[in-house]
Amino acid sequence: MTVIAPLGPDPHAGLRITLLYGVYDVLWTVALLLTSPWWVVRSLVHAPTRGMVRGRLTLNLKTLTPARDRPRVLVHGVSVGEVKAAKSLVAELSKTCDVVVSSSTNTGIIVAHQCYPGYKIVRFPVDHMWPVTRFMNRVQPSCVVLMELEIWPNFLRKANRLEVPVAIVSGRITPSSHISYRRFGKTLPQFHRITVFAVQDEEHARRFADLAGSGDRVVITGNVKIDGLDTDKPADDVALAELRGLVSAKPGQAVLVAGSTHDPEERLVAKAFRQADPGARMVLVPRHPERGRAVLSDLARQGMSGQLLTELRAGREVVDTTRVLVVDTIGELERLYGLADVVFVGGSLVPHGGQNMLEPAALGRAVLHGPYVQNFTQEARLLEKAGGSRTVRDPEHLAEVLEQLLQDEPQREIMGQAGREAVEAQKGATARTLGVLAARCGLSL
User: In 10 A of CB 22, how many CB atoms?
Assistant: First the structure.
């Protein structure tokens, strides 16, 4: 592996670049001022928004005490998927480094606290130079790890000025994003500010090399998310036992879980589930749990009754397996996948781009998803080639395939085992990524 020194201070300094960043900051300032009345009012009546605004502006960020004789690594995941994807990497980095985890969204922060108890969790700043500077001064990272792809010009420029190496890890970029970045990359040359791109596969490597101007800083390491997936049967802990009691399927009753769904998928999938097996215990897990009550209303308009998980937990309702269970909480999905007979992965019946279908596959579940998986193309190909998943064209096809699988338990088991083995065979990205971080970013790992 060719060792390339971390980028020096602001490799793109000059009058033209200075003016460009000045205009960029002015635009941010104008946008913040114009939208501030809405944010102020929203913050007064909605506590999560208030916390998000204060966090993104770094108003509640205190200086983090430096770890003695340990480099500090900031690991950033924009939202839930990226935060969870970093699990194996954070665990390994923590052996020799002081790890700080950041996220941008409320759900990402919540999941970060769930996944990394005892770690320092911070909110990633809005990309105006003032909060970015304040953020970097208080976090004081020796290295920054950005999961998958999170490019912000001011943040990268500040890291360069401080001579802090920045690594993209498990890098992936969609064809549409690649085109967009190519169109605007010369205006703000942000990809030249990345120290190293540790990417998932050859296809992504070509795109990043094109944006970076050469392949010298691009290394194929694989997807560290896969290393964080547990391919063993989930331990029957208290949380799983409690959740199983709330799902509470009767003997012989199929459990059908639709995970990370987007509007209007819930009603489409629920209708298909009911058509395939009217007696099944149906569980819907919206990608955005705050939509729970809206999902109930949509189901009611279709003549289907539902229950919210929070209502069951609070004792305001009793479990009724003839009704649809709508999960309006965060951090339950992996356990729910483990209780399912068949899993449908959402964001794929509508042109959203899909969600991660490797999580249920790792647990040995037969996986179904729609045709819109452009954000998870490699994962979908992997499972399809192994025989661990099926693509459904539309809700009617979903009902048809689901009915076949529910009548064929051996086939479900074959699919589940194939998916689990496919996931297991892809592991090892974390070790390769650590090697890249040591060689390119100067970390002693």
Answer: 11
Within this chain, do residues 275 and 360 fall inside the same structural domain, yes or no? yes
Q: For residues 63 and 136, is the Cβ–Cβ distance under 8 A?
A: no
- Among candidate residues 269, 230, 218, 262, the one with its CA nearest the CA of residue 360: 230
Indicate the Cα dihedral angle 420, 421, 422, 427, nearest 10°: 100
Residues 254-299 have pLDDT tens digits of: 999 999 999 999 999 999 999 999 999 999 999 999 999 999 999 9
Range of the domain at 171: 15-28+57-222+428-441
List of residues 6+ apart from 108 with CB closer than 8 A: 77, 78, 79, 80, 82, 83
pLDDT digits (tens, 9 = 90+) for 322-366: 999 999 999 899 999 999 999 999 999 999 999 999 999 999 999
Q: Please give the positions annotated as active site.
A: 82
User: Distance of alpha carbon 139 from its chain centroid, rounded?
Assistant: 23
* Residues 114 and 248 reside in one and the same domain: no
Report the CATH number that the domain containing residue 208 is assigned in CATH. Answer: 3.40.50.11720
CA distance 71 to 86: 18
Residues 388 and 433 in one domain: no
Domain annotation covers residue 47:
no
Hey, what are 298's tokens?
A: 């949509």
Give the Cα separation of 103 and 346 in Å (integer): 23
- Judged on CB neighbours under 10 Å (0-12, 13-18, 19+), 430 is buried
Residues 248 and 176 in one domain: no
Number of domains making up the chain: 2
Residue at 251 is within a domain: yes
3-state secondary structure 180-240: HHHHHCCCCCHHHHCCEEEECCHHHHHHHHHHHCCCCCEEECCCHHHHCCCCCCCCCCHHH
Q: 3-class DSSP state for residue 286?
A: strand
Residue (of 439, 431, 430) closest to 147 by Cα position: 430
Asked if 224 contacts 432 with a C-beta cutoff of 8 angstroms, the reply is no
Q: Are residues 358 and 402 in the same domain?
A: yes
